[in-house]
Amino acid sequence: MTKYVRDPVQPRRAVPTAEPAVLKLPFWGLSATIAAAFRNDAALTLMARRLILWFNVIAPVAAILLLQQGRPWWWAVLCVMAAHSVWLFATLVPSCSWWGPVMLRLPTTEKKVWITIDDGPHPQDTPALLALLAAHRAKAAFFIIGERAERYPQLVRDILDGGHEVGDHTYHHPAHWFWFLGRGGMYREITKGAGILRRIAPELKLRWFRAPAGMRNHHAHPVLDEAGLRLVGWSVRGRDGVVQDKSRIVTRLKRGIRPGAIILMHEGRADLSGERLAPQVLGELLEFLKSEGYEAVLP
Question: Cα(198)–Cα(194) distance, rounded to whole angstroms?
Fold first, then answer.
């Protein structure tokens, strides 16, 4: 549901609450505490985050004590593995909300979806995508890489002038190691990317952030809170970041369309024949949404 919450950019603005999936953790009675954090209460989320971190601090000590007491060595290994598994799951699973809220869908039962397009702007794809969206009277959010925005600032302006929204997708897009960054590195990636967008469009009310590949660690949410940004995930994707076959991508997207779906796409890639991939996928997706009575909106 949509309710009024404190928005650091525009106080008293109606923004949709995140609806993270409820995931249960079977280790040492942690599931109740972690599940409580999914109610998006800031204090409970902080408690869950600290509990997981303390689990990882205490586990090696507990392992040493087990060995000193003459317990089987695999008891100690299991103890450490359990703690690390919890941390890795919270970090590497994009839909997991144990570190903090992640928006996975729009809070609606109407036939409305949110199209989100990552990794732009791109000098060929972005204009083509904007033309398709305009032709279908559809709206989308473009999650922008900061260094590419510096290279193509007019494309960022074109996105906003078309009535669409932009979100922060870090400055360098370190997809393979963003999740492993310390607080300082994560702060620089997030705030530098956001700063570029605000410099290009001073009037911009930046609200959203998406992590590269969706993976982030326990440092992300404190930085996002400080920057006034909310983490966005997705509920359906075509895997166009790794798949080049347009038909496979479109089929996967169509299967996942539901009321409130957040659709993940990427620009800047070519299909198997070397043609631009994103415009082809978006064109077929928009035709499908129209045929099924769906509307592409912004939250």
Answer: 6
- Which of 219, 240, 266, 271 is an active site residue? 266
**Active-site residue 266, yes or no?**
yes
The verdict on pTM exceeding 0.90 is no
Among the options 118, 125, 168, 271, which is catalytic?
Answer: 118
Structure token pair of residue 161: 């002038």
118 counts as catalytic:
yes
Report how far apart the first and last C-alpha atoms of the chain are (Å, whole number): 12
**115 and 140 Cβ atoms separated by less than 8 Å:** yes
Q: What is the pLDDT of residues 127-149, one digit of tens each?
A: 999 999 999 999 999 999 999 99
Mean pLDDT, residues 232-258 taken together: 96
Please provide the DSSP assignment of 134-165 as one string: HHTT--EEEEE-HHHHHH-HHHHHHHHHTT-E
Sorted by where each begins, the domain ranges of the chain are 30-92, 112-296
Environment class of 166 (CB within 10 Å of its CB; exposed 0-12, middle 13-18, buried 19+)? buried
State the alpha helices, DSSP H only, in 11-72: 30-37, 42-68
Architecture of domain 112-296: Alpha-Beta Barrel (3.20)
